[in-house]
Each structure stands twice: as structure tokens, then as C-alpha cells.
Design a protein that fits this description.
Length: 385
Amino acid sequence: MKNTYIDILIASTKLGLTSFGGPSAHIGYFREEYVQKRKWLDDKLYADIVALCQFLPGPASSQVGISIGLLRGGIAGGIISWLGFTMPSVILLMIFALFVSSTGSFDSGWIQGLKIVAVAVVAHALLGMQKSLAPDRLRISIAIACAISTLLIPTAIGQICIIIAAGVFGYFLYKNEEVENAPEISLTFGKKTGIISWTIFFILLVLLPVLKPFFNSVYYSMFDTYYRVGSIVFGGGHVVLPMLQREVEISPDVFLAGYGAAQAVPGPLFTLAGYLGQITAGMPGAFIAIFAMFLPSFLLVIGTLPFWTVIRSKRGIQAALKGVNAAVIGILLAALYDPVFTSAVNNTMDFVIVLNTFTLLTVYKWPPIYVVIVSAILGALMHII
């Protein structure tokens, strides 16, 4: 088991140091590392985990990483997976917070190169996942319809409704087909642990704000704020930003400086909590903010996974999941355009870098970390020229 924990730490830390581009790109990086390279799970189980985490509030890509850690090494494996993926960006943002001033400039070429490589990573992930999750004309049509709907209704609630609608379509289209063997989910904990986890989640969500008036502590107030935000936000890091801006009492300039820094570092955007916590209450505040922000994700994933195999094996659920998995492809396709492509590709030379990095990934099969480095160098060169 010790070697397993080391493997999880190495893999997740590598992703934490190289996963630029937001949650959509993270899904591509995760698939490359855990499905393609390490063979820890196959595309079907990976798609199931992605679909499950899309339904849960909180940072979806972090929850996918936690889930894979739980499958590989139990609860300790989930914690190690989260630490490896999250702490590099937390540390970088805490360091930045120590030196932050009223303004911050992140308009450099190598950062632009890191944004550009996300386009190639997401496109590469789309191609690979489409072959197994939307292999026929019907599911491709569902994926395209979901992509269009996502672009026209760019809200977290809209995305959830699209996934539900795709599941309903999948149910009616595939309910009479033979049931496939559900991907095996082997866990070191059971349903009792899952029920306890859900119970703790709801107790904290209800009691923290109720007891807040009795605790005159900045740390308690922070824990309540970040736990609540991490519990109720759907749609990923970009959705959490306006919620945090309303809840955290710091100047807009300082907040936006942190937002720019969070865009520039790898890992989940939710690690902005570390920057805000550092600004508000120093190093203890940073760690409290991060712990509170991600605790709901742990509780929700641990609470849901033990029941997933039973739910997943039902004929109706499998039929619905065919639609849901196609929807995941569609949502990823929409994300490839907005925000990944629209925020990264500003001119012809940017698109030239996209074509080069995409070719290195798909044709020459370069590891993503090398492609990231090449893209950063090309971006810096274009900035100088």
C-alpha cells in the first residue's frame, strides 16, 4: 500500500504542477495520466466519475482527482491525490499574496502560451473520449445538441438541466438495450461510511451559520464562508469567483490581482481561497480557507461513491448514462470554444501554436508536460517578437 500512496502522490503532484487551463483542460490531463498512461481505470469508468462529479456541487476536476485517489488507495489515497493536485497552486498563490500590491500584471508571453496549450489538451481529450462515449450517430447528435445548448445557456443551472435532459433522452432511447456490465468500483469503505459522510456534510452546512453569532472569531467566520461556498456552487471555479467577491471583504483591486494569479498557476481555480485566506488572516487563514473550501467535495464524493455501483448497474440508469456521457462530450466541446479557445486564441500566431501543440499531442504522442513547456516557450517568443 505504501508504494500505492507514493504512486498516487507522484501522479497527482505531476498534474498539480502541469495542469493549466481550467477544469475542462484538467479532465483531459487526468485522462491522459490515469487512463492512457497508468491504466488505473478505463474510459467508461472515467466517464462515469466525470458525469457523477458534474452533478455534485464543488470543483468537478478536483472531485474527479479525489475519486480516482479513493479508488486507488482508499480515503488516504483520496487525501494524497487532492494534496498533490492542489497544494502546488496553493503554495504559489500564498507566496504571491505575501507580495501583492494594489495592481498586478500577468500580461506575459509564457502565460499566454500556457493558456494556448489548454486548447490542444481539451481537443485531444475530446477526440479520445468521443470514440468510446459517443461512438454512434445518435449519441454524437446528443453531444452536439448539448454543446449548442451549453453555449446558448451559459449558466451552472443551465448545465445541470442539460445533463438531466440528456439523461432523459438516453433513458427513452436505450432503455430496451441489453445492460452492459457496470464498471467495477472497488472501495476500502462502504455504505455506512457514505451515510456518515453525507450526515456530516449537512450538519456542517446547517449548523455553521446558526452558531456563527456565538463565535467572535475571524477563523470561524472564514470556515463558515468558504465551507458554504464550496457546498453550494455549481459550475466550477469561474462561478465561485463572484460568490467569493461578495463574501470576502477585500478591495476589488486586490481580489482581481489574485484572480489573475489564479489564472496563471496550474491546478484548480478554487485554490484562490488560499490567496484570499492569506490576505485576510495570514498563513492560518490560508489553510483554513483551503480546508473549508474543499471539505464539502470530500464529504460528497465519499458519501456518493459507495452507492454508485448499485445505482449504475440498473438498466434504466445505464440507458440514462449513455445520454449523460454524450452530454459530457457536448459540454466539453462547448468549453473548448468558450472559455478555452476564446480566452487563449487572440490572433493568427496563437492559433499556429495551437496547431503545433495539437500535432505534438495527437500525431507524435508527446507527453503533455513537454507540450506545456513547448507552448510556454513559443508564447514567450511570440511576445518578444
